[in-house]
Hints:
The structure is a single chain. By secondary structure, the protein is an alpha+beta fold. It has one domain (about 10-155): SH3 type barrels (Roll), CATH 2.30.30.240. Helices cover about 30% and strands about 20% of the residues. The protein is built from 6 helices and 7 strands; from the N terminus they run H-E-E-E-E-E-E-H-E-H-H-H-H. Strands 5-6-1-2-3-4-7 form a 7-stranded mixed beta sheet. A hairpin with a 6-residue loop joins strand 5 and strand 6 (about 75-80).
Amino acid sequence: MNFEPKLIQINKTIGTPVINLNGDKIGQINDVALYDRNGVVAYLVVELFDNNGGRKDELFAVPWDVFSVSEVKDAVIFTIDDKMLMNAPSFMKEDWVNADQANLIVAVYEHYELKNRLNTQVEEYNAAASRGLGESGKISSIEEKSKDKTTIERAGIRDKKKSYMY
C-alpha cells in the first residue's frame, strides 16, 4: 500500500494566500472550521481582497474540496472560476461563529455542487456521534436543512445565488 499523505498544520493555514487559476492573489484563509465530533474540515473561512469583490468584514465558507495546494507558491489555489466564489454564501466576521452552521454548510456545499461530498461528511459525523457521544450533535438530513430557507435567512447567511438576505 502506497500511503504518503502530506499534512498541513492549521496554524500555518490561517493567513495563507488564496490564488486563482491565473496565479493572482484573490484573498486569504481567515480560519478553518472543523466538525466537533470527528475533526474533519467542514470548510475554510476565506476573506477576499477588496479588489476581488470582497467587502469589509465579509467572509466566505469554502469547502476544502475546491482548493489545491500550490507546490510553487506558499498558497492554496481556488480551482473553480472566481465568480463562483464571489457569488457564494457569505457572512459577516462577527456572525460566523453564531450562524446556524448546519444550514450554512448545506448552503455552501450546494453552491459548489458538492452535495454527495456533504452527505459523506454527514454520515461520518453522525457515525462519530453514535460512538458513545450521544445523539445531541447529529445533523438532520440534508434535504430537510436545504428546504428550511427561513432558518438560513435568520442565521445571518448571505447566499447570493439564491438571494437569501439577513
